[in-house]
Amino acid sequence: MNNETRELKPIAMYLKPELTQTLTSFSLALCGLSLLVIAMRLGPLTRQADTWNSCVKTTSSFLSTLPGFGTANIDDLKAMSVSLCNGSTPQKEEPLPPS
To answer: Which residues are CB-contacts of 23 (< 8 A; sequence separation ≥ 6)?
Structure first.
């Protein structure tokens, strides 16, 4: 095996200048289109996150005004708010069956 080092030439050296410019333009257009599609797909996700954050904030402030919840830790209120915003319903505490 020969230990000579070969210099790698850019692919553009083997292409015509017109083709190189066309490929560059196509690549830039494809990148721009990809970024546009990504931005469009993030829109609904952003709106859902805003709605969910608003629900958690409103529920937390409501729970803090209820008797018995006023002394609750802020983290506990947020945990209960997340549960309620995700569709959980408050359940009455049932006594444990006799053992």
So the answer is: 15
